[in-house]
Amino acid sequence: MKHLVLIGACLLMIYPLVWMVVSSLRPEGEVFRQSGLLLTDPQPENYARGWDALRYPFGHYLLNSLAVVAFSIIGNLVSCSMAAYAFARQNFRGRRLLFAIMLVSIMLPLHVVIVPQYVLFSSLGWVNTLLPLVLPKFLATDAFFVFLMVQFIRGIPRELDEAARIDGAGHVVIFTRIILPLLVPALATTTIFTFIWTWNDFLTPLIYLTSPEAYTVPVALRSFVDAQGETSWAALFSMSVVSLLPVFIAFLVGQRLLVKGIATTGLK
Amino acid sequence: MRLTALAVAVLFASSCGIMSAGDDDTADGATDVLRVSCFGNDQRIQRVETAIAAFEEANDGVEVQLECTGFANYFDKLATQFAARDAPDVVMLNSQVLGEYAERGALHELGDSVDTSKFSEVAAAEGTTADGRFGVAAGLNTMTVLANREIFDAAGVELPDDSTWTWDQYATLAATITGQGAENLYGSDAPNFGPAFELWLRQQGSEMFTEDGELGFTASDVTDFFVYVQGLAQSGAIPPASIITEQQEALEQSGVATNKDAMGWFWNSAIGAVSKASGADIVILRPPSATGSSADAGLFFKPDSLWTISGDAEHKDHAEAFIDFMVNSTEAGLATLTSLGIPANSDVRAAIAAEVTGSDKVSLEYIDEISDELGPQRPALPSGAGIVDTTFHRFAMEVLFDRLTPDAAAGQLVEELDAALEK
Amino acid sequence: MSVDAELRQLRAGRGGRSSTDRSAYGFLAPWIIGLVVITAGPIIASLVLSFTDYNLLQDPSWIGLDNFRQMLSDERLHHSLRVTVTYVVLGVPLQLGLALAIAVLLNRGMRGLALYRSVLYLPSLLGGSVAVAILWRQIFGTEGMINRALSYVGIDGIGWISDPRTALYSIIALHVWTFGAPMVIFLAGLRQIPTTYYEAASVDGAGRWHSFRHITLPLLTPIIFFNVVLQIISAFQAFTQAFIISGGTGGPSDSTLFYTLYLYEKGFGQLDMGYAAALAWLLLVIIAVFTAINFYVAKFWVFYDN
Question: What residue intervals traverse the membrane (chain C) (predicted)?
């Protein structure tokens, strides 16, 4: 029974992907005439054509995106966990205020920050480099993950720290030897989300990367589209499906890390 | 572990590429770098690149750095760059925003630096404001009615004579097709409200905007138009409002392209996409007129894109030479063909005539055909007017969804546009 | 010490603070540098800009409170607030409730767990590309998936996202549908609950419901709290789905004109960045109030294990 409900739910959840795949196999231009899942004349060559339709083979954009994603993940994992440890486990002046400031920093809508931030980065000469995309991640600017880890660290029993402290461990040791291993579920969550959100981010790379050589996947996908003239929909859909693969794989791997969390906490 | 090593290697390799992108070209002190931005899909941009290669060949010591993106958010990026005083030297704009950029002092006045002697008078006037010339049309477009011949045939209706048809005939014809055609087929898409109203208005001797940048029409002009549009809906000539909404996201989703509507309003550049998506024979028609003569139809060119120069551009002379090359040289014309619109320079147009095929050829011939039927040149859009099309669309839809009367919608529309122009 | 306890302390006046841990600033260094160098500047700049007339192309000029005054009579703004609040009030609880229920269900040992988790996350992976925009419009369209399904039970559906009466609710449904992110966070939180607790409970003969009610739920409250706070913040800023589904217009008939959509239209569409900045700060205040209330209420239901 439980499985039946889940399978039903899964059908609903899987429909969007199936539709994307089916659409990617349709003959050029048919996407808008056929709305169902019926596919009479599959065109697998859409993938070959889509892969080479842009100036660089699509793999080039995938690698660019992977580079941005990888740096972002490393940055978020390191910087956010450090900040979270301080907020969750340490006493210092201004903690309450700084925590509030951190939360406020994600309350402002992105679109009014773009221009001042661009002014800042362009005056530093960072336009058309990776820095505006990845450096902020090394500086824990994404309060979402800091707060997330704060909440998880709070769930870790304090007796563990106390015991280590009595044994003479300092904060660095407690952080790296006790907290981090127990934080694996939160770190896995951070990895998954950073991957997906960075991978799908369109506006930041669009604004900061000016040469086509540096484009990431979402920017490349947009360049299939012409609002005034012809758009290669078949190529666009096939490459959209391709661009989903890395995120899906990332999720599969990441959620295995989530499971690992069990084993670790089970040790206690 | 092996996977990690591989990941690191890949990462390193690709980040080297991305980090160094586009930065190592100023090493040679003898060359001036000209930054050029443009929008469009990748195919169009590759065509522009070919033209640029020819330009670089002809201009020693100038290196063009092309910064192109798709149309999505192009203007957001551009405005951000202007705000940071980091704008490209040559900037592609469209006619919606040119007036705004010019009026705000963001653009370099071109004066006579770009030769437009081979342009028709109307085409040459594009890109000028009351303060002078700030842009040159990269290519021309005009509003047309595209008709799906197969739906006409199926309904047993003749294609109209587009040189004599009136708005009333358009409405009757569309309603007839709806009545005689198959179920769920309609005679017409909703008109492309802003441009259709502009034609409507010009046929009465007015313009959307006055030379002083004020609104050139009153609420009662808009009311008349909205009443006409409402009439189309009431007679069944156009589909219900929610269907219209679904049809307007992409050209290929329009009723004509999906073989559901017999006629629709498009810029001529759309004919390729519409033909391909529908698979049917798509015919290009002049929009209707008030008098029954296409010479009075108030037709106008609207460039899809215009070349301009940023006020802060470092090498204005090179930038001017670049624009001149792009719009006047046969080489550039042969590279870009109709991808930037139909070339305004008549020599270039003649030179590419033999090269273009299919729907591009239809477009090219159509632009030639209507060249001597054009109405007076339209004043440049003043700043704040960039929202005119979206505002028309929004209020027309309010009427079609029966949420506002034509009267009320027209009143609010005029009020909103007035406020936007004042800013 | 928990944040709510700190808030209590704030009201009670200072004191009770043990000595400062200097190494804390070391752990915080990246964040503090980020705040000073990257985050603070643009935030302050946007606050200053909210008192100016700024079109991006010319230098901003000071106009005092004019932008805020204009907001009082801006009917589209008021409308967009109503749209956004509806979205927050309906979307957040529905999405979180579903995410929690499914996370708890998936946390049980069960065959094919990894597969279910991945499949349930699928819609949340898709992002906001052009193809995805077409996908969602197709699903909710007049001839789309939903109406096909409805036609099997004899119901003639409407164009769910193209009808102003249903468009907003369709986007809310879509939001609920993409419950993957909070679900993953709940799953991670469930993983963190030491299994020894359950073992102890089962020794005591506690049933499933009992252990859910008395172990899982209390221990999960910090994570539930996190999701509530962050989902409210991000729901107020909702942009992408409405943007791609309405083609950036907030239509049909402004029915999906989310606050940030309107802000974007003002800032970049009409180059009225001063007004957009003012709008942004109003939103910030609204979100901050909701968040403060959240933190205040938290002390009555959020349970920290120390």
Answer: 24-51, 85-106, 118-136, 167-190, 217-236, 276-297
What are the residue ranges spanned by the domains of chain A?
A: 55-266
CA distance A42 to A45: 9
Which one, of C69, C28, C193, C134, lies nearest residue B253 by Cα?
C134
Contact A244 C49 (CB under 8 A): no
CATH number of the domain within which C272 lies: 1.10.3720.10
Before C252, cis peptide (omega within 30)? yes
Q: What is the distance between the alpha carbons of residues B116 and B108, in angstroms, rounded to a whole number?
A: 17
CA C247 to chain centre: 22
d(C-alpha B330, C-alpha A55), whole Å: 24
pLDDT at B8 over 60: no
CA angle B265–B240–B223, rounded 5-degree value: 65
**Residue of chain A nearest B4, judged by CA positions:** A70
pLDDT digits (tens, 9 = 90+) for B378-418: 888 888 888 899 999 999 999 999 999 999 999 999 999 99
Confirm whether C13 is domain-assigned: no
Rounded to a whole number of angstroms, the distance from the CA of B122 to the nearest CA of chain C is: 27
Distance in angstroms (rounded) separating the CA atoms of residues A22 and A15: 10
Chain C contacts of A193, Cβ < 8 Å? Answer: 181, 184
Residue B138: both structure tokens together: 């990269």
Looking at residue A261, its pLDDT comes to: 52
Structural domain boundaries in chain B? 30-140+303-365, 143-299+384-422
- Per residue in A12-35, pLDDT (tens digit) is 889 999 999 999 998 887 777 776
Strand B261-267 with B186-188, pairing: parallel
Q: Report whether pLDDT(B21) > 60.
A: no
Q: How do the pLDDT tens digits run along chain C, 306 residues long?
A: 444 554 444 444 333 345 577 889 999 999 999 999 999 999 999 999 999 999 999 999 999 999 999 999 999 999 999 999 999 999 999 999 999 998 988 877 666 777 888 888 889 888 888 888 888 888 898 888 888 888 888 888 888 999 999 999 999 999 999 999 999 999 989 888 877 877 777 777 777 788 888 888 998 999 999 999 999 999 999 999 999 888 888 879 899 999 999 999 999 999 999 999 999 999 999 999 999 999 999 999 998 865
Residue A228 has pLDDT above 80, yes or no: no
When CB atoms are compared, the residue of B19, B22, B273 closest to A229 is: B273
**Overall domain count for chain C:** 1
* Alpha-carbon span B102 to B110, nearest angstrom: 11
C-beta atoms of A258 and C181 within 8 A: no
Q: What's the gap in Å between the CA of A187 and the closest CA on chain B?
A: 17
Mutant choice from C253, C260, C262 vs B, greatest count of B C-beta within 10 A? C253
Whether B30-140+303-365 and B143-299+384-422 share one fold: the answer is yes
Q: Which of C268, B23, B84 is nearest to A131 (CA)?
A: B23
Beta bridge partners of B153: none
Q: C154's torsion region: left (phi>0), alpha (psi -120 to 50) or beta?
A: left
Q: Is residue C273 part of a domain?
A: yes
Q: Supply B351's token pair.
A: 């030179």
Interface of A with C in 231-260 (CB under 8 A): 236-237, 240, 243-244, 247-248, 251-252, 255-256, 258-259
Are the CB atoms for A28 and A45 separated by under 8 Å?
A: no
User: What is the CATH code for A55-266?
Assistant: 1.10.3720.10
In angstroms, the separation between the Cα of residue A39 and the nearest Cα of chain C is 15
CATH of domain B143-299+384-422: 3.40.190.10
B135-147: pLDDT as tens digits: 999 999 999 999 9
Topology annotation, domain B30-140+303-365? D-Maltodextrin-Binding Protein; domain 2 (3.40.190)
Confidence of residue B49 (pLDDT cuts 50, 70, 90): very high
